[in-house]
Amino acid sequence: xxxxxxxxxxxxxxxxxxxxxxxxxxxxxxxxxxxxxxxxxxxxxxxxxxxxxxxxxxxxxxxxxxxxxxxxxxxxxxxxxxxxxxxxxxxxxxxxxxxxxxxxxxxxxxxxxxxxxxxxxxxxxxxxxxxxxxxxxxxxxxxxxxxxxxxxxxxxxxxxxxxxxxxxxxxxxxxxxxxxxxxxxxxxxxxxx
Length: 193
Prior knowledge:
By secondary structure, the chain is an alpha+beta fold. It has eight helices and six strands.
């Protein structure tokens, strides 16, 4: 089920810097739309591409800084604050986890199974708002709960859908809670209709 009203998304997407969006789109398509790369990704196990996927999408395309780089806002294998379980990744704001990332390989077709695990990690971080799950080909983005999400097929993503992915996941947007604002405005718009 979609998270957002299209009219609200259109307003926010129109505010994105077009040059930055085009540069990100080119970096994204060079990697994720490359047929040889897609075939290689499909043949990799989770542990073989986990760090590569995070770098290829979150660092190269979406602008995050991965630990151990100074000023990092993205970490791998983030331990929960309540027990020894770990999400595959986490996005940080002022050292607080605001998003958890749970990854599987492309052999995991049912992302619903991944969301249960990811939301288990979310609930172990007090300030966590966002959940991101992926099987390297498809990515799901959730805000606060598992009932609604946006799903993106990274291998076939159109430029228009990429703009929504960028709006939701680009580091400045996510760290400024733009996706939450878009959802709240979408809910308000729906209630007014």
